[in-house]
Design brief:
This protein is an alpha/beta fold and 362 residues long. Helices cover 35% and strands 11% of the residues.
Amino acid sequence: MSTRRGLLGAGLAFCSCCLLDRARAQSSLPPPARRPVTVGGQRVRTVDTHSHCLFQDALSLMGAVGQNVVPPTRGVDEHFLLKGVEGRLRSMDDMGVDMEILSINPFWCGTDRDTGSRIVALQNDHLAELCAANPDRFGAFASLTMQFPDLAVKQLEDAMKKPGIRGAAIGGSVMGASFAEPRFRPLLAKAEELGAVLFIHPQALPELAGRFVGNGWISNTVGNPLETTIALEHLIFEGVLDRFPSLKVLAAHGGGFLPSYAPRIDVSCSVSPQNCNPGIVLKKKPTEYLNQMYYDALVFTPEALRHLVAQVGSSQIVLGTDFPIPWELHPVDMVLATPSLSQADTIAILGGNATRLMGLAA
C-alpha cells in the first residue's frame, strides 16, 4: 500500500483506522507540497467526480430566492470559483486530488422556461470556461432544465460539445417526479447516445420536511441518501436500465442507502406481487442492476467502502468528496486505508474508473 505522503513503505503496516484517523487529525497542520499519488510505484491520477461550485450571476436570476441556494455549511466562499480558482487548486492539492468534475445542484427546477434556460446557459458557459482554462484540473457536469425535458435534450447535446463537459447533473428527481417517467425517455436516450454521464445528486425530500425537523441536519443526512435510494430503485423497477442498457448513471454518496440493504429488493415482488407491475418483466435480478451503475466513494470509513465494493464491484466506484462542503477532506487517504482493496482496486477507484467512465485522456 502507498500513500501520497509516503507514510507507508515496504515492510511497514498500519491498521486502516489508525491511518485514516491520523490523516484527519493532521487537517489543522500546514499542508505538504503537492505530491503525485502513487500506488505500488505506479503514478495515479486522482479524479474527484463529486465537487461543487456556484456562479453569482446565475443565482441572481432567481432574485432573493437565489441566496437560499448557498448551502448552510462551512466552505461557502469556495463555491464561487470565478472569484478565485487558485484557492480551489490549493485545496485540491492538499487532498491529493488531481482533477475535479464540477457540478451544480439543480436549484432552478421550479423556474419558468426562459429563466431556467438563462440560468443553465450561464452555468454551462462558466463551467466550460473553467475547464478550458484548466483542462488537467477540471471537468464538469452540465446543468439542464429537467422540468422541460425537450429543452434538456437540446441543452445536453450542446453542452457535450463544450470543453470539459462529461455529462449532466440531474438531481434526485424533478419536483418529486421520477426520471423513470416516460416524459424523460428522450433525455435518457440522448444521454445514452452521447455517452454522457448522468450524475444523480439528491436535494432531500421536501414532502418529508416536517419529519426532518430537529437536531442533526436530518434533511441532509437522511433525506439526501433516501432520495438517491428512491431514484435508483425507480430506474431499476420501472425497467429504465433494461430500456437503456448503456446509460451511464453515477450516484452520489455511495448510492444512498440502497447498497447497504440491496438484497431486500430481490424478494419484494415475490413477497407482495400486488405491488409490482406484471407488465414490467426485468431481464435480471434487481440487485444485478447495481453492478451497471456507478457510485462515488463518499462513505466515510474503510469498512463502508469495503461493503460497497462487495455489493457493486470495485469497477463501479469512483472518488467523490462533495467539496467544498467539508464532508471528507482526506478522500485519497480513506481509499488507501481500506485494507480489503487490491492495488488494482485502489488505482481504479482513485482515478482509473472515472477516466474510463468519462472518456478522459489517459
